[in-house]
Amino acid sequence: MNVLIVEDELLIRGSIAELLRQSGFERVTEAEDGFKAVEALRRDRFDLVLSDINMPGMNGLELLAYIREQFGDTLFIVLSGYDLFEYAQKAVKLGAFAYLLKPIKDADIQAVIAQAMQELAKKRAMHEQEVAIQIKLKQGTLALRRLFIAELMTKKADAALIRDQIAQYDFSPPHNGFASVLVGMEETHTAGQRLTRNDSELVRYAVENICLEMLENSGYAVYPFQVDDGLGLLVNGLSTEDNPLSARLVPDLSRIRAQAYSYVRIGLSAGIGETTESLARLPHSFATAKRAFARKLVSGEGVYAYRRSEADLSEKPELGSEAEQQLTVCLDRSGGDSAHRFIDSQFAFFYTGTDYDLNDMKQFNYRLILLIQRALRRVDLDPDHAIGEQFALYAEVGSLRRLDDIVAWFHRLIDLSLAAWNDKPTNATHKLMEKARDFVNEEFSPDMSLTLAAERLGISPEYLSREFKRAFGENFSNFVLRVKLEKAKGYLRSSTCRIQEVAQLVGFNDEKYFAKTFKMNTGLTPGEFRASKRQPQSPT
């Protein structure tokens, strides 16, 4: 407790000061009159003032009035040699805590100061509680505002709804231009170690404060908002057609990058979305900020303002059945060069285009992993054995931060796939050809053909034709013909269908060609075969 004693009589002032110091009060200041007391009050803050009333210059009641006006929380104890009701009444009216009559006993002073200490403790506790409540209310408002702005970034809202909510969240942007900014914190540059969760939160807090301070000093109004990873900022500033806000922010954020590295040794990247003059258009600004931020995949850490590229007019790669078939053919033929060219072609768009964000890149990587796994299964290889377990692959590619590294990683998967194929070429191919043979036998139809079987197995007709001959020493077309003739024999033996109908059931549209082919392979016409199987044979 800091105490000021104001008394023009030196002996009384000194004795009270000595009593307080002996009672444990270390901060005791003395003043000989009201003017000296005011000077002391301007230099320091006091919890308690003990003052005489009758003093030259400024008396005690005038000093009390001054303190009550300037320092409302300071307690004031009146020391008076006059037992006059008028003085006591004025002192009470001005808010004096106590009124003591001289001569004052030590016990009286100690008792009233003890009461004053209790009162001060009570006031301090109440003040701290009020401050805590105000802080919580402020923090609650700021947290709700963060969520509100985050909703503005991701959900379309009409102007009337926005107007109703901005006042509620202490959100009154002063300028006409808005731009969404995404700030990402890269790996720590100290000792090459990853940050812990707590350290990451502290770094994020420091980076946010650096951004707010520097951007606000540059004349912008800045409103942080929640994003899943990194820091989201809604920047509000003057914007014109010739000098859009998004372009003006590039040098400011570049200086912030340098400051963040200097203070917390962290690398930053930032994506700046297109400028808008309407809060209702913030989802577009946010989407373009995410796309601008994704440019760090190609160009590394830096500050990027969104600019639409001509390459965006081209189609994004589609990882559908056609791409799967293309990669399968590459693996079938052990075509290392063609398989690697396939990977390069899939990522070409991402090097030149800007119409994608990090989530698009992540989804594309996952879909490409699935495509490679499906292609491996189609050539009868186990993907987990060939390239690794699916979720481990997701985690591995998800940790990469540069597009070059991602592409190199997929080239490694292709190398592993080709190595697995070359390790077991005969066994895998033979099993696949057995599937082709079973398909013809078990799912025979009149339109059975090389193309149909290849489509069913997900391989090329050329590959099926080549490998079937290698596996069984017979052309696929000859095998299908044999199956057709065996089916025809069955119909001729067990049915009353006409020869023309039997021909159509096994895939021959021309009865004469069917009869000619049947005789060439059996030595009998269809009619002769039917007659021979229906009449009993003579014993020899």
From TrEMBL:
Q: Which domain of life is it from?
A: Bacteria
- Gene3D superfamilies (UniProt xref): 3.40.50.2300, Homeodomain-like (1.10.10.60)
* Main location group: cytoplasm
Response regulatory domain location, by residue? 2-117
- Which subcellular locations apply to this protein? Cytoplasm
Q: Which of the residues bear the PTM 4-aspartylphosphate? A: D52
Q: Which UniProt keyword terms apply here?
A: Cytoplasm, DNA-binding, Phosphoprotein, Transcription, Transcription regulation, Two-component regulatory system
Domain HTH araC/xylS-type residue range list? 434-532
Q: Which PROSITE patterns match?
A: HTH_ARAC_FAMILY_1, HTH_ARAC_FAMILY_2, RESPONSE_REGULATORY
Q: Identify the GO cellular component terms for this protein.
A: cytoplasm
Q: Does the keyword Lipid metabolism apply?
A: no
One Pfam entry for this protein is: HTH_18
Q: Which GO terms describe its biological process?
A: phosphorelay signal transduction system
A molecular function GO annotation: sequence-specific DNA binding
Q: Can you name this protein? A: Response regulator
* Lineage of source species: Bacteria, Bacillati, Bacillota, Bacilli, Bacillales
